[in-house]
Amino acid sequence: MHWTEAPIHFLDFEGSHAAGVVEYGVAVLLGGQVTATATRLCRPRGPIRASDTAVHGLDAAATAGAAPLADDWELFAGWRQRGPLAAHFAGTENGLLKSVWPYARQSPDFVRSERTTNDWGPWIDTGRLIPQLFQGIESAKLEELVTRFALAEELAALAALHCPPERRRYHAALFDALASALLLRTALRRPEFAGATLSWLIQLSALDPVRREAMQQGELF
Fold this sequence. Notes:
By secondary structure, this protein is α/β, with parallel strands linked by helices.
């Protein structure tokens, strides 16, 4: 399946394993365009450390009264059924997601069209993909890649449309999800990647050669 034919759900969480998810952002990329977004604050499951607040700007007062992430099962399960999940270095999002819901609903595999899985993955991971697609990238940090690909102005415009005014910044969940979506779209607009498929993107996102080979041979999940 060509990458433009199914919605790709770019997910970013702010939080930690101790506090859990305190904010999520989702940007849906379909047909090469951001077609929908969602974001909200979430009730922490533990104390928010001052060092974490210094990064994402959220504390106990900001999240007071917010519902826990667990309340949004239908949203997340539905996103996974409609298209693959994506993130910038997806290990964090995958771990936090599984700490709330260990399994998704039975959903398309997106590597092998005949398979289904109840895993939240396999993921598209822009933090792994972009350095493989472009030579000479020394840092895969989100902000540095946005600068490298001259996306700051477009990202700011999208943030003005979709993000709460106080969350139009890096380390705000929807802002980071939008940045990841723009990175993938911009990369795949290059002529040499015109035929990119979801399966190819997912396989490139798996740096572990054993895991990648398992995907190719139909042995994973």
